Amino acid sequence: MRRRLTGMAVASTLRLVVMGTGPFAVPMFRALLGSRHAVAALVTRPSHAAAGRRPAPNPMREVAESAGIPVLDPENVNDEASVAAIERLGAELFIVCDYGQILSPRLLAVAPLGGINLHGSLLPRHRGAAPVQWAILEGDPISGVSLIHMTPALDAGAVIVARASPIYPGDSAVDLERILSELGVDATLEAIDRIQASASLAADGERPTVGIPQDASKATRAPRLKKTDGVVDWSQPAARIERMRRALEPWPRTTAFLYREGQPPMRLVLEELAIVPEPPAGSGGLGPASGQASAVGEILAADAAGIVVACGQGSFLAIRRLVPEGRRSMSAAEFLRGHPILPGMRFTLPSQG
Predict the structure, then answer these.
(1) 95 neighbors 111 (Cβ within 8 angstroms)
(2) pTM, to two decimals
């Protein structure tokens, strides 16, 4: 049943239901378990496994079970049975992060204070499921976290608390996600404090009003990544492809296809890339004829230092480490010992020849 808020309850302890699935939410969840607030339950995505395979890891479930916190994992969090089960928990506030389902207005209305969401970007930039990856892809110099009031519109609620952090050269999505997940801990606790303070001043029966509305004209999208997003288009500038390699770790990773005359293209996962400021001299006949411009995807040089490829806008990229399909990770030097690069070889899209 719903708890009715009183001045005493608002000033001290809130009863919370946390909703989350992925690792980004774990530091915040642990902090709430150790806070003055009472976590009634975790709502998480159900675990599914393909035939003969184990279910995907669910770090939030593992933390909840180790702490003795009840776990609900509905297929559809918004159906009547799920809403009724969550309502029985008597939560005053929902804390949502990296959950994977959008909450309906009916469900949000169950908690007297509604819900807040910990999001991995400085909203309104990068609304959507993959904000950390898109911040790196777009070359943003800074990222951060935002705590917002939840509304039916995706990531569009008022920003209660925001924290910024620089994106350093070389940061991967794994690196940045770890930094932002830790940044979200104090930000979440501060957002709860602000809601409590506002609720104590609100008229009886009214929800607290706190936060700064987002400027929708500045919103950008950060949609969920697909496997095809990892295929390199060599007409893109080298800087974009290098960011792509960092943004798409650990999934879907960055994939290139080496075209070989009379053979099927070889699929390679690119693990380490470096921008090359100018075309290599003495390419040993691999590059274009004298006076001709390099075609995108063309291999200009290949030695122990890397495989240099022509990219869009007259830029160049060196592949220093890679994984051939079905093989282990190896340096460019190791790869070239078993797969010499010959004139005419180039990188291409799978549909091209």
Answers:
(1) no
(2) 0.90
